[in-house]
Amino acid sequence: MAAGDNVVVTSRSGDDGPDGAFTVQADVTDSASVDAAFKQIEEKYGPVEVLVANAGVTKDTLLLRMKEADFQDVIDTNLTGAFRVVQRATKGFMRLKKGRIVLISSVVGFTGAPGQVNYASSKAGMVGMARAITRELGARGVTANVVAPGYIDTAMTDA
Fold first, then answer.
1. How far is the C-alpha of 22 from the C-alpha of 84, rounded, in Å?
2. What domains can be seen in the chain, in order of their start residue?
3. Could you list the active site residues?
4. Predicted confidence band at 152 (pLDDT cuts at 50, 70, 90)?
5. CB 20 within 8 A of CB 1
6. Of 13, 82, 122, 125, which cross-links 53 as Cys (Cβ 3.0–4.6 Å)?
7. How confident is the model at residue 36 (pLDDT cuts 50, 70, 90)?
């Protein structure tokens, strides 16, 4: 923002993001919602040049108690949601012949953690996603990287 870049934040609720950022409602578990958000962004600013895929949820419980729906919900938001936004952003990247993708993973994707089979799986999957994207789209000027931070005190981790 300070360097003159346009920053867009998406949220499920559409509530305002950081000062100076344009906020758009988007639910990464719904392809139509993702597409509508991108259309709104592209109408205002043109094609997306940098994508940071940061949506994430947790539904922690031990493996023996984990419901299949809780596993699937976390995978659908954290991993499949990243796929949805990356795939949609790629349309603009191809027109621009460049693009930057940053997937926000977690150290848990590498180390695992008790009660987080679903979360660890979703975050580990981002590493493979980035590697495949790089091999597929690198020659077209598109890069994909993964950031895997440790524990961060957020509203999600407070729960």
1. 20
2. 50-158 (3.40.50.720)
3. 119
4. low
5. yes
6. 82
7. very high
